[in-house]
Specification:
With about 70 residues, this protein is mainly α. The chain contains 2 helices and no strands. Helix 1 runs antiparallel to helix 2. It is elongated, with a radius of gyration of 16 Å. The two termini are about 15 Å apart. About 5% of the residues are buried.
Length: about 70
């Protein structure tokens, strides 16, 4: 059986991949909404939010991968 530490790191990788998938999948409908209604949100806010969420997911994913590899 896997140790508790490796299980937690595996879940961290899964959550990171889920965050990345959510950001990518959620950005397409938002782009369409933004094209239809241009004054929807302040300029630059969308890009900032998407980048922060995407790179947070990448960080979680690779922290889990590196943690599994190192143990």
């Amino acid at each position: 059986p896997m140790s508790k530490q490796i299980q937690e790191l595996t879940w961290q990788s899964v959550i990171g991949a889920a965050v990345i998938s959510f950001v990518v999948a959620g950005s397409y409908p938002y782009v369409v909404l933004k094209l239809v209604n241009w004054g929807f949100q302040a300029p630059g806010a969308t890009t900032t939010i998407a980048f922060v969420l995407f790179f947070s997911g990448v960080q979680l994913f690779f922290t889990g991968i590196i943690g599994e590899w190192g143990t």
